TrEMBL record:
The keyword Acyltransferase does not apply. The lineage of its organism: Bacteria, Pseudomonadati, Pseudomonadota, Betaproteobacteria, Burkholderiales. Pfam families: DmmA-like_N, Fer2. Residues 233-318 form the 2Fe-2S ferredoxin-type domain. Residues 1-101 form the FAD-binding FR-type domain. Keywords: 2Fe-2S, Flavoprotein, FMN, Iron, Iron-sulfur, Metal-binding, Oxidoreductase. It is an enzyme of class 1 (oxidoreductase). InterPro entries: 2Fe-2S_ferredoxin-like_sf (IPR036010), 2Fe-2S_ferredoxin-type (IPR001041), 2Fe2S_fd_BS (IPR006058), Beta-grasp_dom_sf (IPR012675), DmmA-like_N (IPR054582), FAD-bd_FR_type (IPR017927), FNR_nucleotide-bd (IPR039261), MRET (IPR050415). GO terms for molecular function: oxidoreductase activity. Its cofactor is FMN. PROSITE patterns: 2FE2S_FER_1, 2FE2S_FER_2, FAD_FR. Gene3D superfamilies: 3.10.20.30, Nucleotide-binding domain of ferredoxin-NADP reductase (FNR) module (3.40.50.80), Translation factors (2.40.30.10). This is PDR/VanB family oxidoreductase. CDD domains: fer2, PDR_like.
Amino acid sequence: MMKVVITRKRQEAQGIFSFELASEDGRALPAFSAGSHIDVHVPGGPVRQYSLCNDPTETHRYLIAVLRDPASRGGSDGMHERVHEGNTLEISAPRNHFALAHEARRSLLLAGGIGVTPIVCMAERLAVLGADFEMHYAARSREGTAFVDRIQASDFANQVHFHFDDGDPGQKLDLGTVLSKADIDTHLYVCGPKGFMDAVLGMARAQGWGEEQLHWEFFAGADAVPRADDGSFEVQLASSGRVISIAPDETVVQALSNAGVEIMVSCEQGVCGTCLTRVLQGEVDHRDAYLTPEEQAANDQFTPCCSRSKSARLVLDL
């Protein structure tokens, strides 16, 4: 973890503010690559993950952008209301679970709303490399679309297509057409609201895209709230044999913490992978947005912040 200073706060679009971060002591910040994110400890709120959207060659600053969510649980509200120029924040070093596949001959970038933050960084990196790519940016309206001027002033502006929900029907995003142009040498990158990403990934899979060609990053997962059919189960710690019961209304992380067993967590929504834990026995009920379908099917790891068990017991590598 490190402390940074907010050197600039700027409204990028309706409901979206960007925040420029610099190290507190003036030193160079840790390097990052396109697609990276940082954990931000929101003042008076939770830890949230925000993608870095500035040039990765810059070492004097990080740039993030935050959409104010009407259903905020303290993250976006805290950033918009309680974070101002001159304030300090505690952040993590950058991590990248959404990296570019540089072996791809062509890249297709799809951004939905605030999901543009990692996508625009990818587009700029691909442009520097002279790589073949196409970008589609969908948003509800022009007024709520961040970084439009930045994109239109770029050298790759003619490779970007904007799609507005309130615009002319002819310019709206036609996923079937966009995704039908793929071949095995094309990689797809998508980021945005869950509904948008589910639609993109569902259409891509239906059109025969291979999982190795699909890359995505969710900003939020499903809330870890109990379902009507949730039952109790047990987890066993492989190192000691200790068995801990998980009630229908608590997560594995909560139950382990109450029993004095701490697991490192961050998002608590199955998005970031911080709490990923190895499973030795049992059948997992995956509820995360982090693991791929193939990784979930392997049944050898899970996110205890939100996922549960289909079997009476899970044996964990703890």
